[in-house]
Amino acid sequence: MAGMLNYTAAPAFWAVSASNGRVFRVKLSANTPLSPPPNFKAPPPKPFSIRPDSVFDIMGASLALLFRLTTSVLVSGYSVNVVPASEIPPDQYALGFAGFKLKESSKLGPRPDKPIEIYEYESCPFCRKVREIVAVLDLDVLYYPCPRNGPNFRPKVSQMGGKQLLPYMVDPNTGVSMYESDDIIKYLVGKYGDGNVPLLLSLGLLTTLTEGFAMIGRIGKGSLYTPSKLPPKPLEIWAYEASPFCKVVREVLVELELPHILHSCARGSPKRQILYERVGHFQVPYLEDPNTGVGMFESAEIVDYLKATYAL
Ligand SMILES: N[C@@H](CCC(=O)N[C@@H](CS)C(=O)NCC(=O)O)C(=O)O
């Protein structure tokens, strides 16, 4: 999937392409080769379990569901049937419970060849609106995190679009780039959906307010830059906006200003089957770090890994 990127990763620089064809080079902040922390061992997946020291983090991140309901839980055209577990072959992903499994499906629009590029940060309600439509449309996105005081990607937004305003989207498939969350949402549903903006994303001020309330349990997280090493290749994360386990990982990716490709896989996403086949299990978040060769489940351990590998 990393092969779909629209820039060439060089050992010493990031090359970030803009819609107008200009290329900005961002110098790496550390020359030391990246490696996993000493004695690193990827933990086994433990679905729906919370590490004791993360209980309050996960509870805080779960509050979003109260304010935003199922937006970003389900992909577009989601439908589900409950069937006996024996009806699902073992090589097929399906969430199971008490002898039954969920047979889920979706109706998705045209797929972009290259990931959409979005400059944003976690705690911004307008950015969150765009992240929700990414989940609904089941898109892959190359995120350039722009925490406050972030030295790398915030300045690029001003250079590319002429002003310091987030979120900012670049679609390398069409050359279109734009500010304004509502315009980005309309563009994305027109191009990669059925043209309709979901109701909960079309309520104007009420949408923006509930997006803000959704993050009330995580105030201050995912906003401020923590000095870090900028990796030569973007990390890859399998996750979706509504999952509280994914949320706590995304906050740290933003704080450390780590570019990452999100493989969004809300309920009904066909990408769940892809991850299932690739690693023999489906659970999110799942992190792949091409800079160190690490692939891992488990939110609390992913947070520890990111801080140990990238924080300065
Ligand atoms: N202990 C894991 C729990 C993660 C988890 O349970 N994630 C849910 C989504 S919120 C999941 O992937 N469930 C399996 C499924 O949906 O099939 C962690 O902290 O990462």
Automatic annotation (TrEMBL):
Pfam families found in the cross-reference section: GST_N_3
CDD domains membership: GST_N_2GST_N
Sequence ranges assigned to domain GST N-terminal in this UniProt record: 114-196, 233-312
Alphabetical list of PANTHER family matching this protein: THIOREDOXIN FAMILY PROTEIN (PTHR45288:SF1)
Protein name per the record: GST N-terminal domain-containing protein
Source lineage: Eukaryota, Viridiplantae, Streptophyta, Embryophyta, Tracheophyta
